[in-house]
Each structure stands twice: as C-alpha cells, then as structure tokens.
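Supplementary material to the annual report.
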Amino acid sequence: MPQFDPSSFASQIFWLAVTFILLYWVVAKLAIPRIGEVLDQRARMIQEDLDRALALKAETDAAVAAYEKAMAAAREQAGEHMRSVTNEAKATAEARTTELGALVAKQVADAEERIAKAKDDALASLKGIAAETARDVVAKLANLSPAQGDVEAAVAAALKETK
Amino acid sequence: MAQESMATGAEHVEGAPEQHGPMEQFTIKPLIPIHVGRLDLSYTNSAAFMTIAIAISALLFWGATRARTMVPGRLQSTAEILYQFVQDMVISNTGKEGMKYFPFVFTLFLFILFGNLLGLMPYAFTFTSHIAVTAALAFFIFFAVTIIGFARHGLHFFSLFLPPGTPLWMAFILVPLEVFSYLIRPFSMSLRLFANMLAGHVLLKVLAGFVISLGLLFGWVPFLAVFGVTLLEILVALIQAYVFALLACIYLNDAIHLH
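Predicted assembly:
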C-alpha cells in the first residue's frame, strides 16, 4: 500500500503545510473579510428596510388616527349645526304660525262682528216689516187701525217671547 | 533512498500496464524532484492536487467576491453558503469565542472538501486518502487544541478529564478513560478520513475492473454499481469534510470551555 511507504511522508506533509498555509492566507485575508462584509451589509440593509417599514407603518397609523379624529369632529360639528338650524327653523315656523293665527282670529272676530251687525240690522228692519205686516193683517181681518206704537210694542213683545 | 522507493512505484506501473491493481491509484509520483539535504520534498502528484484544490478555492472566492452584490449571483451564493455553513458550525459548537478559529476551520473544511471531491474525478489523485496527510492535520489539531487549552486554563485544563460532579471513587476509573479518549482523538480522526477515502476509491476501482472483465454482456451490472457508488462517494466526500471540521470545532470547544 503506497500509504504506508514512509519515504513519501516528508514530501506530503511539507506540501500539505505549504498549500494549507496558502489557503489559510486566502481564506483569512480575502474570502472571510469580503464575504463577511457583504453579509453584514445585507443584514444591515434588511434591518434598515425593516426599521423604515416600521416607521412608515407608525406614520400611517398616526395619519389614520388623525383622519378618524377629524372625521368624528366634523361629524359632531355637522350634527350641531344641523340641530341649531332645525331649532331656528322650528322657532321661525312657530312664530309665523302664531302670527298668522292672530291675524286669522282677528279677521274671524271682525267678520263675526260684521255678521252680528248685519243680523241686528236685519232684525231691526224685521221689526218694522213685522209691525207693518201685523197692522195690515189687523186692518184687513178686523178692520181696525191700531196705533203705530201699539203694533210695534206688540211685535216687540212677541219677538221677545219667541226669542 | 526515499526517492528510490517512490520511483519503484512508478516503475511498477510502467512495467505492468495491464495489471492495474486497485492500490495503484494511490501511488505517489514525483513530478519535480526536490531534495533538501537528506529530505525528499519532491513536488508530487499529491502536492499537485493540493495545489489544484487551493487554486479552485482561491478562484471560487476571487470570482465570488469580485462584484459583491446585494443580491448574490450563483458563485457568490455558493461562497456565502459555504461561509455561513462553517460559521454556523463554529458558533453552534464553540460559541462566540470560537470565532477566533473560524478562518482555520473554514480552511480545514475547504481543503478536505476539495481534496475529497477532486479525488472523485477520473485519473485524479486523492491526497486525503493518505494517512500522512490526514494524520498531519489531525495531530496539528490535537496539539493546537491542547496548547490552546493549557494557555487559556493553565493546569485547570486537566479538569477536562474529570467531569464535574463525579464521585471521587469514580475518578479512578473515569480519569484514565477520559485521558485515553483524549489521546485517541488524533488517531480516530485521521483514520476515519483516510479509511473512508481509501475504501471508497478501492471499491470504485474494483467495480470498474469488473466492468472490463465481464465485457459487454454483463459489464453493465458493475457499471451501474460504479455509478451508484460514485454518487455515494460524493456524499461521503461531503460528510467526511464536515465531520473533520466538526470534530475540530468540538475539540476546540473543549479547550475553550472545558465542559
């Protein structure tokens, strides 16, 4: 077996040491610093991106909260405005209603007064007509000619009774 | 003397080309002979594949970290996955203090991983299938961990051999056991990788030999087996690299945190 031939040991171990030290130098001075740098840089970049994303998310959350707050305030204000306008309109309507009611009542009163007056007038002229008719009836039926005053008094009495 | 025996291996191949034994693939052939005094430090096929392995690693990282984009491409993703895989392994097994040894564990993982995977290429040499390489790595880790342990904890490091809360009479049994298991670590570590790589490659070679000897009629049976075993060996290559690096982490954790 060539493995147990000691004559090659010195050469094998010598070249092993030479090549191993060379590779160690390449790995320690070139490979590890460079790869480590890239990996660190990438890790840092990812961390930075994550941090930025978190910050942006916080910002967004704040914006959403502010928006919701403003929205609620606006809604509140609009409601308040609505209520005051409604109240005002209600008050105006009420005032107008009472005003109109008063006007109507006054007109009704005036009309009633006029009707009453007309009725009185009518009644007054009715008395005269009744007295005359009564006198004509008496003259025709009983051939009497009662005094104007008597007839009127009688009519008035009769009216009073019917009333 | 050393060169002679290495050359004998090469001669054997040239002498009998039709007899490709399953062990032949592990032969170490000198490509550039280098001798320092009596020491043979020749640049061999093993050294060449170590060079290719670290060259591929270096190229991978060079290509992967050229652009360094936030959204990684294919190559950059590969490098990042490897980095994070080993980093997770170091952190979860040794904690934050263990990150000091992250470059070492990363290098160890890449070296073994590319060594194992490269060895699966046809005609390639698997340097992790040699006990000299795996033992050198394992003993280096063993001594480094021991030195780190004593440097951090001084003589208190010996408490590693006695789990806290052990009754005194138990210590007579436990301490020798713990010392033994500590000392056996480099052996088990090097043998595990070596044996896995060796067995896989021998199996592949033997099965591949059957493809030829059974010919067109039945050759496809071992051929399918070679296909399946190759897939299995890719898995083994990954797992053994992982296990080696993981054990290094666990031993480091012992040295840093005791228990």
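The longest helix of chain A spans residues 9-142.
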